[in-house]
Amino acid sequence: MQSNIIKSLNVELCCYSLSEALLAQRGEADRIEFCTAKELDGISPSRESIIEVLNQITIPVYIIVRPRGGNFIYTQEEINWMCDEMKWAVHHGVSGFVFGTLNDENKIDIINCKKLIDASDGFPCTFHRAFDTIENKLEAMDILYSLGFKRILTSGGVGNAEKYINVLKELVAYANDRIIIIPGGGIRLHNVLQIVNETKCSEIHSSDGGIINIRKNKKIICTVLFYALIFVASS
């Protein structure tokens, strides 16, 4: 199974500007998550910046659909705005969407998630790190799968992915390829090998703007994993 992970490992890079997106593409990232306002942990970029990125980027671009910073409990006005942004983006070349809505009980907001999934018009949707604050993550995963989400971006808990490797491992195993678990949050070159190796994830997410040559780094990760497997097999 580990050899399959090495071959299929995909890297998604969070980009806050066109210049970062161009660097990600030059480094052969597999996908870009495009947003703005890093200090707010990412909110929806403007329509103008989306067009600017889509005009120059050829790899898949997913956009964050988040009207503001703070919690993930949205008013109906905010939900309507999110739906409008998604319906607009569908016709302007995006490849997918990243969003998440919770209710007052800190559980999946099923009604509004359905509205947003409908607004995506069949484009793949990722439920973002609002998932990290949910207590019963396995139940939440089942709900997200039933709603039609393709991926869950999570660190496993509130904080960095490295801290929650055991949780991430459980989530990947429970997902069993029904839905893709993307570890994200504090993933860098110094810890990505451990996270991929222990969780058996097939995709990783990083917001480290300093990672420029993604493809080169990916090859390094795969090579180290390959020799690690040989060492384990021979010991």
Keywords, separated by commas or semicolons:
235 residues; 9 helices; 8 strands; 14% strand; globular
Please give a quick description of this structure:
By secondary structure, this protein is α/β, with parallel strands linked by helices. The protein has one domain (2-234): Copper homeostasis (CutC) domain (TIM Barrel).
Category from helices, strands and their pairing: alpha/beta
CATH architecture descriptor: Alpha-Beta Barrel
Return the CATH topology. TIM Barrel
Number of domains: 1
The spatial strand order of the largest sheet comes to: 7-6-5-4-3-2-1-8
- Beta percentage is 5-15%
**Rg from alpha-carbon coordinates:** 17 Å
| Helix percent band | 40-55%
**Distance N to C terminus:** 19 Å
Task: Describe, in plain words, how this protein is organized in 3D.
- It is a single chain.
- This protein is α/β, with parallel strands linked by helices and 235 residues long.
- It has a single domain (2-234), classed as TIM Barrel (Alpha-Beta Barrel), CATH 3.20.20.
- Helix content is 43%, strand content 14%.
- It has helices at 2-8, 18-26, 47-56, 76-90, 110-119, 137-147, 165-175, 192-199, 214-234; strands at 10-15, 31-34, 61-64, 96-99, 125-127, 151-154, 180-183, 203-206.
- An eight-stranded parallel β-sheet has the order 7-6-5-4-3-2-1-8.
- α4 runs parallel beside α5 (110-119).
- The longest helix has 21 residues, at 214-234.
- The chain is globular, with a radius of gyration of 17 Å.
- The relative contact order is 0.15.
